[in-house]
Amino acid sequence: MSKLKENTLSFIVLEAKKLFLSSSINDVKMKDIAASVGIGEATLYRYFETKENIVMQVAVKMAEEIHSEFFSFDEKESGFEQMKRFYKSYLDVFARNSGYFKFIKELDAYVLSLKNVEKGEYQNEIDLYKEDFVRIYQKGLEDKTIRGLSDSETFYYATTHSLINLCMSLSSGTRIEQDSKIDKTKEIELMISLILNSLKGE
């Protein structure tokens, strides 16, 4: 791929990302993306055959950016301290970039609506966090700061899915009257605390 084409693809994904965050995935049309990029709609289709392809590339790019910005660890710390950082990173994302959770909530619904798109490869590309969890969990077992789990993979998916779903729900604003009485940050902190308490070693 030429450098020019690579730069154009990156620019298209960047502009599409801005549109999806300011509006919604469903509301943004290919003509909107083309206009934002400054090219004709027919030209846009030469770079991306479908809107779905653009959505998937935006999802991968955003996952990479979030992982790079928020999920960093001090290897000198114990396994448990790193695991604490791992889960608290979700709270940091919510506090500083809650638009990401709004986006992935829309993305989940959008992907489920697709009929002929291969989702497996895309899902693997945005699951950048499992390797972090596995490495930190192993370190915690070795330094005995994390207790052994009967099924660490299920624990990872159950806890991260629950945490992400909570962040997605809270990023959507007030849903019922009780929501306005509860501090959203404290809700997330409580869930993280419950997760960490179930992991802490002797």
Feature tags:
202 residues, 10 helices, 72% helix, elongated
Structural description of this entry:
By secondary structure, the chain is mostly helical. It is 72% helix and 0% strand. The protein has ten helices and no strands. Helix 1 packs across helix 4, helix 2 crosses helix 3 and helix 9 packs antiparallel against helix 10. The termini are far apart. The mean pLDDT is 89.
The helix tally amounts to 10
Give the CA-based shape: elongated
Radius of gyration: 19 Å
Q: Give the low-confidence spans.
A: none
How many strands in all?
A: 0
- Gap between N and C termini: 53 Å
Give the oligomer, counting copies of the same chain as homo and different chains as hetero.
single chain
Largest sheet: none
Question: How much strand?
Answer: under 5%
Fraction of residues in helix: over 70%
Summary, kept brief:
The protein is an all-alpha fold.
Task: Give the SSE layout.
Layout: H1 3-22, H2 30-37, H3 41-47, H4 51-70, H5 79-96, H6 99-113, H7 120-126, H8 130-143, H9 152-171, H10 184-199
Helix pairs in contact: 1-2, 1-4, 2-3, 5-8, 5-9, 5-10, 6-9, 9-10
